[in-house]
């Protein structure tokens, strides 16, 4: 057998399941990162969201700092920091601190969306009038803080200055693909909830990529949901948590991450089932071998340089087990 050369990475939203609290979610996230590191995963990213009762990753840099202290090799990063919610200087200071604590292990993934509702956006003191239109300028400003100080530069990120922390642009449409291509930055595409634009975004990015100081050729991470278990039946049962999550998102219902159920047909209408299955069509559920087969197909279709896995699994032990199973099987797929 030969080892798969496409790296596997993990995305975590630090989900709070029914019957658990934020402290439980943070402990599970740390254990998940440790399991991913042991299983040979390349990166472990945490996503910024606010005012969602089932996600405990609002203070993203704080979570990453804790996980960094509990791991030793795996790269850590944001998937992503929603840059318009913050002053670029503060982001540079936070991630400069992380890079100083955990040298050569930190990635800074950036998103343009708020990661929350508009009322919470206002509570975050974000200027809602910009509507993300100043995102390219904010990225440029942030990059400047990681470069060596220029002559006469008055404002510096300390720590941060001169650390050249790699920036990533996250996208669920072609917008970030266009900006990543123009600025010569790597792209992480959110196929785990936005598969419709996946191929168009990746194609545009590769065709229009301009080399930069950070990157000389295109590099694409494709993120998908995955659930692995000892049997396909068990994996499909665990995946009903994911189905319920997206059913609730479509209904505008904010709930803790739900427990799996035996029969989804008791919960949704036919049209809702069609919508959810279409949105989650890139998800990979089954035995580890079945999951890896679908992931290899995804690599073949997209030319992905790296695959990142997100898991909506309610039970912490099953979630950790899923990462372990996939990591073991991927190495030989």
UniProtKB/TrEMBL annotation:
Name the Gene Ontology molecular function terms of this record: oxidoreductase activity, acting on paired donors, with incorporation or reduction of molecular oxygen
What InterPro entries does its record include? Bact_Lucif_Oxidored, CmoO-like, Luciferase-like_dom, Luciferase-like_sf
Gene3D superfamilies linked to this entry: Luciferase-like domain (3.20.20.30)
* GO CC terms of this entry: cytosol
Xref: CDD domains: Flavin_utilizing_monoxygenases (cd00347)
Instruction: Enumerate the SUPFAM superfamilies for this protein.
Output: Bacterial luciferase-like
Please give the superkingdom of this protein's source.
Bacteria
Every Luciferase-like domain range = 24-305
The UniProt family comment states:
To bacterial alkanal monooxygenase alpha and beta chains.
What the entry lists under NCBIfam families is as follows: oxido_grp_1
Give the PANTHER family listed for this entry.
LUCIFERASE-LIKE MONOOXYGENASE
Specify the protein name. Luciferase-like monooxygenase
């Amino acid at each position: 057998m030969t080892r798969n050369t496409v790296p596997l990475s993990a995305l975590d939203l630090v989900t709070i399941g029914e019957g658990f609290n934020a402290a439980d979610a943070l402990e599970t996230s740390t254990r998940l990162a440790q399991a991913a590191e042991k299983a040979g995963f390349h990166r472990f990213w945490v996503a910024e969201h606010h005012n969602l009762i089932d996600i405990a990753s609002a203070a993203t840099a704080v979570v990453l700092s804790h996980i960094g202290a509990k791991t030793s090799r795996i790269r850590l990063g944001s998937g992503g920091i929603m840059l318009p919610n913050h002053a670029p200087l503060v982001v540079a200071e936070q991630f400069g601190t992380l890079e100083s604590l955990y040298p050569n292990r930190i990635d800074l993934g950036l998103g343009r969306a708020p990661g929350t509702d508009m009322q919470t956006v206002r509570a975050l003191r974000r200027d809602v009038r910009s509507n993300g239109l100043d995102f390219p300028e904010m990225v440029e400003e942030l990059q400047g803080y990681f470069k060596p100080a220029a002559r006469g530069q008055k404002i510096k990120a300390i720590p941060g200055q001169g650390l050249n922390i790699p920036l990533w642009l996250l996208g669920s449409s072609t917008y970030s693909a266009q900006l990543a291509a123009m600025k010569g930055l790597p792209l992480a595409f959110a196929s785990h909830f936005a598969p419709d634009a996946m191929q168009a975004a990746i194609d545009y990015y590769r065709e229009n990529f301009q080399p930069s100081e950070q990157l000389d050729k295109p590099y694409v991470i494709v993120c998908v949901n995955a659930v692995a278990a000892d049997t396909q039946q068990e994996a499909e049962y665990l995946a009903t948590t994911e189905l319920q999550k997206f059913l609730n998102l479509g209904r505008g219902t904010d709930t803790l991450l739900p427990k799996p159920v035996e029969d989804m047909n008791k919960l949704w209408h036919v049209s809702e089932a069609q919508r959810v299955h279409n949105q989650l069509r890139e998800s990979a559920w089954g035995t580890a071998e079945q999951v890896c087969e679908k992931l290899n197909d995804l690599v073949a279709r997209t030319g992905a340089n790296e695959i990142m896995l997100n898991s909506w699994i309610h039970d912490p032990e099953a979630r950790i087990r899923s990462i372990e199973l996939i990591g073991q099987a991927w190495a030989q797929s």
